F-box domain-containing protein
Amino acid sequence: MSSSTIQPTNRVPTLRERAEIRHLINQDQEDVVRLTNTLEALEKKSIAQKGFIHNYEEALAIAEAMRRVAEKTRDVMAESENMLQPHDADTSVKSEGQSYHKHQRLFRDAQATRRSAVEEAQKATRKIAEMDASIRDIQQEIKGEQSVLAVLEMSMQSTITSIERVKADIALKEAVISARHFVPVEIWRDIFSFRVSEDEALFYDNKRKGIPPFTALKLSAVCRYWRDIVTSSAELWKYIAVPHHDRITVGQRDRITYYHNQCTPLLPEVYTYYHACDGIPVKVNLVTFMRETFAEYQTLDMFIHAFSLMRGPSLRSFLELLSPKANILQLSGIHNPGYTFDIAVDSIRYVKHLKITNKPVSIAEPSHGAPTIPLISFTLDSITLNESLFTGSLSSMSHLERLYLVNVTLNIEGPIISVTMPALKHLTCDLHIYPTISRFITSPRLDDLTLVIKPMEDSTMRDFDEWLGRGGERHPHIHNLTLQALHSEEFEIRNLDDTVLDHFPDVKHLRLSGTTPSSNLLSSPTSVNSLAHIMVLTIIGSAISEEELASFMRGFAALHGRTPKLAVLNCSNLNIQAIARLQNQHY
């Protein structure tokens, strides 16, 4: 099996194929060792060859310099001969005087100098010829050595190319037999995303105490293949943990910055966590750093607690300084009866969805003018509500479209003026507080209502029956009604069919979530006149049987001459075939 016939696929190779591919890998690794040794030998020869060329080039430089010296000598001697040439003949007048003897002496010196100049010029000419021959020889030697060097370098490059090719072949073959490559990159991303979500959920359940999971960092450190997948998947870096301290360390700053860069272009989901950092230098101001780093958040989840316990600012002060631009702002704390958490309107002016858990909240008005709270949705979970919510906070939420009041306790002692919420379209609240909520909130656009059903005391149920009795108010503007049971066990809710649905006569989409509402409300459909306008019936998480639901559909058809469109999700007693029979049957 040659490497050219091996293709990386998601098919798991057989044992024979794996053995043959492993044998090829071993051969390739031996070739790499051999080629590497050859390359090292070629490199040594190349270094020696460059030394030869260097020596020849130095010799050439000396020969050229000596030729220039000889040429200069020849030119000087020729000039000297020319200067003495006019004095070649003896033009003196013979006499016995001193002048004649001085002339003869100088004349003989000039003749000797002229003969010496001629000889030196001839010698220099011969030297020039000698250097020319030497230069030609050296140049030929250099050309020869350069040719040898070129061959060596070509062999080295060919060997390097061969090594790279063999290593690529090894990588390809290892990829074929590597278990991680059996799974497509898209599936790895889904696996990593699930792992990140699971780890973050576990850390959240642990009250976000200790060191965060940092799952993306850990996954990227496993191997280069995983690192390439993780670092190219922005969604794996969207959860960014920030210490719940007014000052953080340089290392924490760098880690948060790295996560934010990897998360881009997605908006980050930032949350604070508790982690002791005693003895570690904390130099970076958190609120300043967050303002400079995060232009916008998908989610900002913070504890309702002062930063760094005693030395840091309160959360209200921190939020006022931060003024985050967040799609969702979540604030959670430890339940403390009698304590109300205040939020300044200015600190949430760029927030679309606000969720507060375990702390009663009051949104304080600014000192200048009447505030308008620009929230689209507002969630209060596991808190006690008093009249300030209605007279203060909700009255300023003119843009609010969705209101969630879950696991709340009402503590209303004085009279409350009705609050008009012109934009409110959806309300979710506990069933037993709905009568009170509906009295105090006027919402002309409210169309979608979710009532959460929980076990209630008999006295609470009697109060509910009294208000939602047959003489009570009716809510014809509700077209989408959800009855959601949070309790997993069966419990009795008396007269739900009479006391609830009769007060919502125009419901077109009825959603029943949980065993209890499905069993009670679908037991006798012919007696429930308010179901006449239902166009869609959704059953979620119910133990209702196929026969019970078919009986309801037959009774509905007999009473109204039609059946609603049926949607069934996560019902234990209804499989795909049963759902298809219910949806396609003519009643």
